[in-house]
């Protein structure tokens, strides 16, 4: 990071208080910008915290206070050098069908609601949002808020709690970010602004253009036009950072890095189905970055290729995704049976482990309609989905054949309770079982997410899967390096005096604001 006396350092005058980042579209860069600013603020010694009023995502994390928040907010907390807390994401929606989602308020599930019912529920959810925000505001000097989707979704404006509805409620300034790599960036910015009310437009203090490639001088005429047309400054043009690997908020990132290894060097081929309600697919991010691993994600209508290891990931609707797996034209059940017959290994994580058992029962309709499903039958295990969700951070030990016991850590997020008679190979620090291995030693199942983020556990499982001498990859260290890289590039791209002036102008126009 630049030193505090560097000309690239943001001015300290206006950085306390609340600043919100909203985007012209989903995946415009809101999450990464909050990460970057959080790390910059933290490096400057500012007490800063991330906040997202409402998130819709199937990648989630467990907090120290025993709740559940979006995975992106956990990453933002790390950027701010904080432990994740449920107040950082008071409303989390986890879709379990095309028209409904599980609603999580301040870390705890309150039930499943169809989209039409949730629209009416937002007034209640807003109370939780403002309660969490006020607590954070009292504890931290600066609150960096991330919006959701776009504030220009006209059909969602009524009772909005995620974008301008929140910004208006707390009277905070807003930065609007757009992704130039998608094309049409000026139309996105001006069009979004035109869809806002006059008071909402007034609280947009400036623009950030994200993922720019090439010679910035070729963009200058467009920047001048945008500032002249809107009367608002372009605060930064952020570069396209090739090879930036950070936890995905929801979308699958299928990029693979092999670090330019020679073709004749041993690689372990890992294949994973991408079913419709896949959750916490960030579990395999460490594999995606491992130089000895080739990770292949197989989507709908695709035939699974030969593999050394098949991973069945988590799911927000396990029985529905199991049915998807059993009915795909690629014939996954036959492929898994053939894979095991020829010496391959299978790892099931959370919902993927439940699928590997004999049966999954959902008598209360926790994930969808009530009923029972016959599993793949590779683990002698039965699962019943219950109303109470298990949410906890875990540490323990992994013990696989012909290997020394390995310290491991992770987190559990599941509604199921499983009865299993297979060999216990993962135990938590209190001796409770957390993972099982079948009698043939080729099928491993665990409820622990984040297991592969631990370097020793990653190496142990890769060795079990057939890799010889395993290179140690510390994904947590890589994540820290990527956060620093993102913050450095953002700090260099921002025109900090413009931000300082824009914030000062905003607050001068609102002298009643208690900062």
Summarize it.
The chain has 515 residues and is an alpha/beta fold. The protein has helices at residues 30-43, 71-79, 115-139, 164-170, 185-194, 198-202, 220-230, 285-288, 318-327, 332-341, 351-356, 455-464, 475-493, 496-508, and strands at residues 17-23, 48-51, 54-56, 60-62, 68-70, 91-95, 100-105, 108-114, 142-146, 174-179, 204-212, 234-239, 268-273, 278-279, 293-298, 309-312, 314-315, 345-349, 359-362, 371-374, 381-398, 406-420, 423-428, 433-437, 443-446. The strands form 5 sheets. Strands 13, 15, 16, 18, 19, 20, 21, 22, 23, 24 and 25 form an 11-stranded mixed beta sheet that branches. A 6-stranded parallel beta sheet has the order 2-9-1-10-11-12, sandwiched between helices.
Major sheet details: 11 strands, mixed
Number of strands: 25
Distance between the termini: 28 Å
Low-confidence stretches: 1-7, 511-515
Helix-and-strand structural type: alpha/beta
Number of helices: 14
C-alpha Rg (nearest Å): 24 Å
Shape: globular
Helix content percent band: 25-40%
The overall average pLDDT, rounded, is: 92
Written overview of the protein:
- The protein is α/β, with parallel strands linked by helices and 515 residues long.
- Helix content is 30%, strand content 28%.
- It has 14 helices and 25 strands.
- Strands 13, 15, 16, 18, 19, 20, 21, 22, 23, 24 and 25 form an 11-stranded mixed β-sheet that branches. Strands 2-9-1-10-11-12 form a 6-stranded parallel β-sheet, sandwiched between helices. A 4-stranded mixed β-sheet has the order 3-6-7-8, covered by helices on one side.
- α1 (30-43) runs parallel beside α2 (71-79) and α1 (30-43) crosses α13.
- The protein starts with 16 loop residues before the first strand and ends in a 7-residue tail after the last helix.
């Amino acid at each position: 990071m630049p030193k505090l006396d560097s000309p690239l350092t943001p001015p300290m005058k206006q950085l306390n208080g609340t600043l919100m980042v909203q985007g012209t579209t989903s995946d415009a860069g809101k999450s990464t910008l909050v990460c970057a600013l959080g790390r910059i603020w933290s490096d400057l010694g500012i007490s800063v915290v991330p906040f997202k009023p409402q998130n819709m995502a199937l990648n989630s994390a467990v907090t120290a206070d025993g709740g559940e928040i979006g995975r992106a907010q956990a990453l933002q907390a790390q950027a701010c050098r904080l432990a994740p807390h449920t107040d950082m994401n008071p409303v989390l929606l986890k879709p379990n069908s095309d028209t409904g989602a599980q609603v999580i308020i301040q870390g705890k599930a309150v039930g499943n609601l169809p989209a039409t019912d949730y629209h009416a529920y937002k007034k209640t959810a807003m109370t939780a949002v403002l309660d969490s925000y006020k607590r954070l505001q009292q504890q931290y000097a600066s609150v960096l808020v991330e919006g959701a989707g776009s504030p220009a979704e006209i059909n969602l404006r009524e009772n909005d709690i995620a974008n301008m509805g929140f910004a208006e409620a707390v009277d905070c300034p807003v930065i609007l970010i757009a992704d130039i790599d998608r094309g049409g960036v000026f139309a996105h910015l001006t069009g979004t602004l035109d869809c806002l009310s006059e008071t909402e437009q007034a609280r947009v203090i400036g623009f950030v253009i994200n993922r720019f490639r090439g010679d910035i001088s070729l963009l200058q005429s467009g920047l001048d036009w945008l500032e002249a047309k809107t009367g608002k400054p372009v605060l930064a043009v952020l570069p396209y950072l090739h090879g930036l690997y950070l936890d995905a908020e929801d979308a699958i990132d299928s990029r693979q890095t092999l670090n330019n290894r020679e073709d004749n060097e041993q690689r372990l081929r890992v294949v994973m189905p991408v079913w419709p309600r896949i959750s916490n697919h960030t579990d395999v991010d460490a594999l995606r970055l491992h130089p000895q691993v080739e990770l292949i994600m197989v989507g709908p209508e695709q035939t699974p290729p030969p593999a050394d290891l098949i991973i069945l990931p988590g799911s927000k609707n396990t029985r529905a995704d199991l049915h998807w797996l059993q009915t795909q034209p690629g014939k996954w059940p036959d492929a898994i049976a053939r894979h095991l017959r020829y010496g391959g290994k299978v790892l099931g994580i959370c919902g993927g482990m439940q699928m590997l058992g004999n049966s999954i029962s959902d008598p209360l309709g926790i994930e969808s309609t009530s009923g029972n499903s016959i599993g793949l039958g590779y683990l002698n295990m039965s699962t019943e989905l219950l109303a109470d969700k298990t949410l906890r951070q875990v540490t323990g030990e992994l013990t696989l054949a012909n290997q020394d016991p390995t310290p491991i850590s992770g987190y559990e997020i599941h509604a199921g309770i499983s009865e299993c008679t297979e060999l216990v190979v993962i135990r938590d620090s209190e001796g409770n079982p957390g993972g099982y291995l079948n009698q043939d030693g080729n099928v491993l199942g665990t409820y622990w997410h984040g297991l592969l983020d631990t370097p020793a556990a990653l190496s142990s499982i890769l060795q079990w899967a057939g890799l010889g001498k395993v290179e140690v990859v510390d994904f947590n260290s890589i994540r820290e390096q990527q956060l620093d890289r993102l913050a450095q590039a953002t700090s260099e791209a921002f025109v900090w005096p413009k931000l300082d002036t824009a914030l000062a102008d905003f607050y001068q126009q609102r002298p009643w604001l208690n900062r």
